[in-house]
Amino acid sequence: MQFTAAQIAELLQGEVDGDPQVLVNDLAKIEEARSGTLTFLANSKYTEFIYTTKATIAIVDHGFQATKAIPKSLTLIRVADPRMAFTQLLERNYQLQYEKKGIEQPSFVSPKARIGKGVYIGAFCYISDEVVLGDGVKVFPNSFIGERTTVGDGTRIHAGVKIYHQSVIGAQCVIHSGAVIGADGFGFVPNTEGVYEKMPQVGNVILEDHVEIGANTTVDRATIGHTIIRQGTKLDNLIQIGHNAELGKHNVVVAQTGIAGSTKVGDHNQIGGQVGIAGHLTIGNKVRIAAQSGIGATVEDGATLQGSPAFAKGLYDRSYVVFRNLPSLQRRIDALEKELAALRQALGDTPR
What is the DSSP string of 286-345? Predict the structure, then answer.
């Protein structure tokens, strides 16, 4: 889409210095801008680029004064805070990418599904019986939504997402490509002959409002009951959440972490990348777990952990200093043992 300098200035409550009808259709950094793009100047380190930029529009501070000629093709928009103004434009540009409506073909939408207002369903999607899509939901191409699943208002489901039956997805959630919500939990029981038999997984997954699920992340359905991710929690890419796990509110979990079944994680936790958390544990509130840590026991509120198995980070740091010095410590011990042996020999003593 194209916008004039006048339209952009109105949105940003700025003033046009130049041609108000000039058009732009993209955003760019000031040093990389080309004709037809909009840029901004907020840091004095980049001031020199304003005199050479190929951008069509530049957002500058109200008080900006050129010390030499700026390009004749450049129109300025003067605002109170250029960085904040550009952030507003980035947000608006981001929203425009998802302002789609209607049902593309080919796709299948069950006549038993309920579709809200302003919904977008991309090509090759499959919307099953008794699915409920709230107002403004966006389902991008090649996604599947299973029977009796509900999706709250404003949620965005990116291309290639698979949501199994009876899942409950809240409002304003984001689920990125390749994510799988509601696949069977890893439930197998060995019989008397040692053969593993599958335990049916008949529960579901609940994602509360404002949850974000990263690309290729999996959240398993419960054996019975629910696997729950509560309001505001954000999961990175390539994360595994086991059956009947429960994550509280406003947690952030970084890529390649695995949380085993029936573990309960509290609120406002920060869990680093490649962390492994065993099953049937309780992780408190405001816990911080460093990357590649292994958690095999319950964790109290406010703890900061590192290591595998993880223990208090302060103790880990002190232990790590010793660990790094082990080769030199070994050499010192060997030297001391030689000195001790020589001393004993000199004294005619024999080691016991």
Answer: S-EE-TT-EE-S-B-TT-EEEETTEEEHHHHHHHHHHHHTHHHHHHHHHHHHHHHHHHHH
Residue 115 shares a structural domain with residue 234:
yes
| Structural domain that includes position 322 | 316-347
Residue 243: active-site member: yes
Domain identity same for 289 and 166: yes
Question: Quick one: CA dihedral 110, 114, 117, 121, positive or negative?
Answer: negative
Residues 114 and 141 occupy one common structural domain: yes
First to last CA, the chain: 88
Separation in Å, CA 58 to CA 44, 47, 101, 193, 329: 14, 11, 32, 74, 61
Q: What is the pTM of this model?
A: 0.80
Give the number of domains in the chain: 3
My answer on whether 299 and 170 are in the same domain is yes
Q: How far apart are CA 155 and CA 37, in angstroms?
A: 30
Which tens digits make up the pLDDT trace of 29-85?
999 999 999 999 999 999 999 999 999 999 999 999 999 999 999 999 999 999 999
Which of 158, 176, 210, 243 does the annotation list as catalytic?
A: 243
